[in-house]
Amino acid sequence: MIAQVPPNLTELLGQVIGYIYPNEIEIHWSILIVVYPYLTGLVAGAFILASLVKVFNVKEVQPTYRLALLTALSFLLVAPFPLLLHLGHMERSFEIFLAPHLSSAMAMFGFVYAWYLMGILLLEIWFEYRRDLVVWGREHKPPLRWVYRALSLFSNDISEQAVAFDRKAVRTITIVGIPSAFLLHGYVGFIFGSIKANPWWSSVLMPIVFLMSAIVSGIALVLFLYMVITSLRNEPLDMKCLDKVASYLFYAVVVDFSLEALDFIHRLYQSEESVKILAQLISVKLFMNLVILQVLLGMLVPLAVLVAARTRRVNPDLRKLLYFTAALLIQLGIFSTRWNVVIGGQLFSKSFRGLMAYKMEMTGLEGLVTALGLLLAPFLILFVLVRLLPAKRAEEAPIHPA
Amino acid sequence: MNKREFLKKGAIAFIPAAAVLQALMRQAEASVAGAAGATGSPTPGYEPRDHWYGMGIEVEKCIGCNRCAEACKAENDVPPEPFFFRTWVERYTVKQSGETEVECISVNPRGERKAQDEREVLRSFFVPKLCNHCAHAPCVQVCPVGATFTTADGVVLVDSTRCIGCRYCIQACPYGARFFNHRTNTADKCTFCYHRVVKGLLPACVEVCPTQARVFGDLRSKASRLVRFQRMNKINVLKPALNTEPKVYYAQLDGEVR
Amino acid sequence: MKLPEQVTRIAVVVALVATLALLVRFVLIPRAYFSTAVHQSATVRREVARPVNFAGASACQDCHAEEWEKKALGYHKGLACETCHGPAAGHAEDPMSVKPFAPRDRKFCPVCHAYDAARPTGFPQINTESHNPLKPCITCHNPHDPVPPETPKECAACHAQIARTVALSAHALLPCATCHTASKEHRIAPRSALPSKPQTREFCGQCHAGGTANPDAPKVELASHGGGYLCWQCHYPHLPEGRP
């Protein structure tokens, strides 16, 4: 692959406001790097919602448990691709496993990812589904039978004792999994928050803000998927479950909003050297994305909608519609949040004297089409996974084969 | 069940395959190690540990002729586009109103510079910029594969055969001194003309500076021009609050310079 | 308690994955592939092996002794040859077939010598439009010893910044010689024969003391105004209306 100098850089030179260091004209972390924290955020959020069932015994959200797990898996499988595609040398990415440079905040990425994928998510899903896999392996004809047999690692034992062990294992993994999910996404926040050169990123709150917005987006996604999938199957929605998930969503948005407001007020009040350029950044470059999309449409409106759905005596149908609207708006808001962090942090000069411009590619490797593809890919994976591993538990356990 | 057997067979097949692979890798290792040679002196008679390089810049001597930025591009094969620089020159104009205007004269060196209205100018000066070869370099800290590092003589280099092109280092540099080289698809930056320095030559920008606004030298040698420069001037570095400990020292640096 | 059979199965898989990972990392792949020391010394060697394009000033001396000596005594003594002639390592190696660049047109010298307010005071700067227009610089100046053939009569040729400040001030119409006397030597060796500067309050008083003839100059009572301070401690003579 012979990469060339992006052709639009000269054009961007004319769109600079104020003074920037000459090398800063190129925006290095493109839309793909916006997609990445968005995807891992959904993973962490969905997983944390799933763990509520197992660890805190929240019975109401049980119907979303398996869906949340599979959602987390399908998004996690896609999550590294935006990063890989963005590297200048994709073929050297394995170096990060072979020779991680331990002082780098980014070096542990591969290990955190591998741990979360293999140590937590796959393991939990395996224990959760093992009994059903065995049962399905007996029910289905080849070749599906062989898929289920292989997935269950040819295990056979579905005695009460063995299944009880599975349950205990799932619970233990979940308990380890919650800090791991926090780690996965808080870590992404740290990658940005630890860059002292960039005042828009550099903040101790960054990992926590990332985490809370992850939880918000993950819960909203599971809520959305649960409503869509259940309706597609013509099954009735469990309103108790919906209300509960929606109330978690509400609290998560409140916490997320408070944290981001705190971060904002803190910066404004401290009013450091960078405050002028950041104010200019918000008013000139990010007004639409930050004020309108992220705060207004992505937080305040959904909050109002969720409150309205609860306090007024609205009928279930309207309530569903309101939840659905809130979930969609929140996705939009969180995506804007990621955009504002990643792209916003690269739109002002480190000389604090000027603003750059970002022109998104359309069809290039780092363009909009790739980004959309990466955002859709998890849904395709989820579609296959849900087919293969239905959320409904296998009905009865047939007797042992002879 | 025969899967245990299968596993055993798999293991048996794996061992010879591994052995062949390993032999191949050892061969490759020999070639890498041969090219690299023993660690230590890069050229005969040069001991990196005896040196610790830095640069001094006397702001009041800079006439903004841009010879340094052009020489750098010629010496180091820096991409010609006007937004990839290993070194560049900024022109500051502080106005009576207190407002400061900055322009990078290297972007358009032969073109018209922004006209300055003499009645509004309070003071005006040029500032050359380059990689600060920080003793506590954030770019070195953040590289996930250790492709950028500080040599024993204090020069921050990029290993372009190892850099994965994640550009975290470019984000971490507070000085905008790094850029992405689209020919190699790796991060690129000033090397203090390491290939010249170890041969006893001056960096290209220092060599061509007509007013000796740039002083290159070895901080380990008491007789070096740089140490003399530090003795004779009040010194400041860029963005000292970030604690990067730059090794490019500015004399007569104005507070407006960032 | 007896562990259920699935535990063994998953344990085998986990152990396999872990062993494989460790095997690949620590046995299969030779150290040189990820050894930081090896990579770094290879990088240093690669850097050192890069070609030198600027030969350095001393490389020119052997063949171009005449120019070298001439330059060493003139105003351009601090300049490296390659500042103007460009990278010349190729020429140093093969003098006959590779010829360095020799700037001859009028565009080149103003790169350094065109007036720019950001250039340091005292650095010789010209107004490219009015300074002997259209003539290439080398018709009058030898670049290896660029003393002007004729010292410019007007002080502004060298003191452009002061001239521009004065031009905007109430002192705009005063010739420099009103306050400074420059000896002839100043034109040849400007730094060793400095022009005179006013020394006393009475000097300014010639125009500004009450009762003196000049009607346009603002008057003060010389005996009491400003206490014992010298005039230029409060007023910048090149821009006297600037606030004290």
Biggest sheet record of chain A: 2 strands, antiparallel
Helix content of chain B: 25-40%
* Widest sheet, order of strands of chain B: 9-1-11-10
Identify the strand order in the major beta sheet of chain A.
Answer: 1-2
What do the pLDDT scores of chain B average to? 87
Q: Which architecture of one domain in chain B would the CATH scheme give at its second level?
A: 2-Layer Sandwich
What is the arithmetic mean of pLDDT of chain A?
A: 89
Overall 3D shape of chain B = globular
Relative strand content of chain A? under 5%
- Give the topology string of chain B: H per helix, E per strand: HEHEEEHEEHEEHHEHEE
Runs of chain B in which pLDDT lies below 50 for 5 or more consecutive residues are 33-39
Uncertain ranges of chain A: none
* Helix/strand/pairing category of chain B: alpha+beta
Quaternary state of this entry equals heterotrimer
Give the overall shape of chain A, derived from the CA principal axes. globular
Main beta-sheet annotation of chain B? 4 strands, mixed
Radius of gyration of chain A: 23 Å
What order do the helices and strands of chain A follow? HEHHHHHHHHHHHHEH
Using only C-alpha atoms, the radius of gyration of chain B works out to 24 Å
What is this structure, in a nutshell?
The complex is a heterotrimer of chains A (402), B (258) and C (244). By secondary structure, chain A is mainly α.
Topology:
The complex is a heterotrimer of chains A (402), B (258) and C (244).
Chain A lengths: L8 H5 L3 E2 L12 H25 L9 H14 L1 H7 L8 H4 L10 H31 L4 H8 L8 H34 L12 H27 L6 H32 L4 H11 L1 H25 L4 H27 L11 E2 L12 H21 L14
Antiparallel strand pairs in A: 1-2
Helix pairs in contact in A: 2-3, 2-4, 2-8, 2-9, 2-13, 2-14, 3-6, 3-9, 3-14, 6-7, 6-8, 8-9, 9-10, 9-13, 10-12, 11-12, 12-13
Chain B lengths: L2 H34 L16 E6 L8 H10 L10 E9 L4 E5 L16 E10 L7 H5 L5 E3 L5 E3 L9 H5 L6 E3 L4 E3 L5 H4 L6 H5 L5 E5 L6 H8 L2 E2 L11 E4 L7
Parallel strand pairs in B: 1-11
Antiparallel strand pairs in B: 1-9, 2-3, 2-4, 5-6, 7-8, 10-11
Chain C lengths: L4 H24 L7 H13 L9 H4 L3 H9 L7 H5 L3 H5 L16 H4 L46 H8 L16 H5 L12 H8 L22 H4 L10
